[in-house]
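Many introductory courses stop at the sequence. We go one step further.
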Amino acid sequence: MSLKNLFTLTVLYPCLMGYNITTYAQDLEPRAYANAPVGMNFILTGYQHSEGALLFDPSLPVTDANAKVDMGIFGYVRTLDVADKSAKAGVILPYALLSADGYVANDYRSREVDGLADPVFYFSMNLQGAPALSVQEFKSYKQNTIVGFTLKLSAPLGQYDENKLLNIGTNRWSLKPEIGLSKAFGRWRLECAAGVTFFTDNDDFDNGSTGILIFIL
């Protein structure tokens, strides 16, 4: 699991509130399905800074909104043997500082808040081409074609205030199943993955209304 992908998982979550808008995005983690010896432990840390304009639903009276998000992350991943197939399990714990301002119905508003963002639990398993191997066995392993799947579960445990428009946490669950393929061509790897994210409703957005979807540009 790369730091680049951890940032992708976490930096958008503080600004996602759950409106039923169709959006499109790309999220490809390099070597996500590469084999690794069983019993390895990885500690991951990282930092992300994002700032820019906020996009709201056009029906909302919000204009000239901008935000800055500073986020630190801590992650832990362990490689596993599941039914003689290589697998990984881990957790990502992000902590964020959010500063935003803008106009709501021509009234200037600002918000500064910090706290835990929604943690992400991660499990992946290679179904073909990547058997569970010890460190010694892995020395002679040569990749050909690997097919696997990943499940990412985000829990609504981040900072959230239903009386505020912007929050760090999303106050809803999300589940992303994904299937991926990695093909070796000598020293090169061709990788592709397809997934979809399912969200539960955020029923406590803005005093009980349905949440909106916000992106930092």
